[in-house]
Write a structure and sequence with these properties.
Structural class: alpha/beta
Strand content: 15-25%
Number of strands: 20
Distance between the termini: 73 Å
Low-confidence stretches: 1-89, 243-258, 331-375, 379-392
Largest sheet: 14 strands, mixed
Protein name: F-box domain-containing protein
Helix content: 25-40%
Length: about 500
């Protein structure tokens, strides 16, 4: 027993024997965990990290050794799990490396936990279970399957030791019978007390997609390319995080695999208000899923998607009329952010022009859904040509175009936005403008544009005074409501 800086105490107990679990009784008599906890309280030192490791190494053990480790941990780093810097939940983390002696080892550990004063004096809020796979798992599976009732009883006992748990995190690296049974037993024992769950798809597959009906916040790590069906009705926040290019998680999927959203299409999330997808390079098409997502109360949508398609953009906009913020980003650093009317502003941003060609060409399909917002900003390296099909932009009041845009395309935008009051185009290319040429060729007789536009700010590609003069004459001739025109 030793003290570090007089305020942190770390204890590690290890028992290594030549026979499976022999010597445990002697070890327990000599240094029971209950005595350790009492000494801890007498020393008035906070419990920061306690690890109980029971190992058995046997020449006849075909699994190459067996181990059960139990971690009890509380530290400031748990705030990362909560994403709340001001809140430090109590965490009980159990690492299970299954083996032939796992059941007696779990009995031993649970009995020690029952005598752990720290556990009874502190309200555990987050239960973190790590399940690790080993070789020859079929032997373990058959061993555990014969003792299913006992395993379920252990899981129930574990939950009884931590009755205040509201957050559950289950991690598994393989879908096997033992991990599946343990995960199912823990989830089934949670009842209706768990409101937040952090789980990977392997673990979710093991429990058959069955989640506590009280669950409100689900964080799902997609380490499998097939998502199981999720059965929960009160979910308010759903986060899917997937595989990023270059990360070692590619080991699980293999190059070229994508996440399949098919099983999420019937997800019942009537009260869902926040949906986040962080995928990296291997996100599959989720347009259909978003089209059928039953989330009438959804307000915040954050999707990291590749490829960034117009269909995806249109789908997320149609997801909910109550959306306040939609953000779409792609691994190429493209970002599209839409603020719906509650925030009084709509922003579309991207860097790669290839993603914008389809977007601009398909404005007609999207116009009714998006352009009732009072303010819109387009920002990219986009060149909008006069040949693009741009629909009626409805009651759009203010437009900022930070992208490179041709003068004729800008005129086309003005013609299709009758309620536009203010226009700011930061990079306008005039060149041999057909609109100006036609206007000049008809002895400067121009048909007025039906618009309410009052103020225009233009950044010309050429700072020629002659060009400014020509553009000014043209706009004043066609826009009768124009009150202010400036160049920069």
């Amino acid at each position: 027993m030793r003290s570090i800086n007089h305020d942190v105490l770390i204890l590690v107990f290890r028992c290594i024997t030549d026979k499976e679990c022999s010597g445990l009784a002697d070890w327990r008599r000599q240094l029971p965990l209950l005595w350790v906890c009492r000494a801890w309280r007498m020393a008035a030192l906070p419990l920061v990290y306690c690890t109980l490791i029971v190992e058995s190494i046997s020449t006849t053990d075909m699994l190459g050794g067996s181990q059960f480790s139990l971690d009890i941990k509380t530290d400031s780093n748990t705030m990362v799990l909560e994403n709340k810097g001001h809140y430090h939940p109590r965490v009980l983390r159990i690492r299970v490396h299954y083996c032939k002696s796992i059941l007696p080892n779990m009995d031993f550990a649970l009995r020690e936990l029952q005598n752990c004063a720290w556990l009874t004096e502190n309200k555990i809020e987050l239960l973190h279970v790590e399940l690790s796979a080993q070789a020859n798992s079929s032997m373990v599976n058959s061993f555990v399957l014969d003792r299913l009732d006992r395993l379920q009883m252990q899981a129930r006992l574990l939950l009884l030791l931590v009755p205040n748990v509201t957050k559950l995190k289950i991690e598994s690296r393989a879908v096997d019978a033992f991990s599946s049974l343990l995960a199912r037993s823990i989830v089934n024992s949670c009842g209706d007390q768990v409101i937040k769950m952090d789980v990977n798809t392997h673990s979710l597959t093991m429990v058959g997609g069955l989640l506590p009906q009280s669950l409100q916040d689900l964080w799902l790590f997609c380490d499998s390319n097939v998502l199981p069906k999720i059965n929960t009705g009160l979910l308010k926040r759903l986060t899917l995080t997937g595989v990023s290019h270059g990360m070692f998680w590619n080991y699980w999927l293999g190059s070229g695999h994508v996440i399949d959203f098919a099983n999420l299409e019937q997800l019942a999330v009537g009260v869902l208000y926040q949906f986040d997808v962080y995928s990296g390079y291997w996100l599959g098409p989720c347009d259909g899923f978003l089209y059928t997502l039953n989330a009438p109360k959804l307000r915040y949508l954050n999707i990291n998607a590749s490829p960034l398609t117009f269909g995806l953009l249109a789908a997320v906009i149609r997801t909910s009329r109550m959306l306040e913020l939609v953000q779409i980003s792609a691994p190429e650093n493209n970002v599209i952010t839409l603020y719906k009317p509650r925030l009084r502003k709509s922003i579309l941003e991207a860097i790669m022009a290839k993603h914008w060609s389809a977007l601009v060409a398909s404005f007609a399909e999207l116009a009714r859904d998006i352009f009732h917002v009072p303010k819109l900003c387009l920002s990219s390296h986009l060149i909008i040509s006069s040949g693009n099909s741009v629909a009626d932009w409805g009651c759009l009041k203010q437009l900022t175009v930070a992208a490179k845009i041709s003068f004729d395309a800008l005129v086309g935008v003005i013609e299709r936005a009758p309620d536009l009051l203010k226009l700011d185009a930061k990079d306008v290319w005039v060149g041999q403008s057909p609109a100006i040429a036609q206007w000049a060729g008809s002895e400067k007789q121009a048909v007025p544009i039906s618009t309410s536009l009052r103020a225009i700010s233009i950044g010309l590609e050429s700072d020629s005074k002659a060009m400014e003069y020509l553009v000014e004459k043209y706009l004043n001739a066609r826009i009768e409501s124009l009150e202010s025109l400036c160049f920069y």
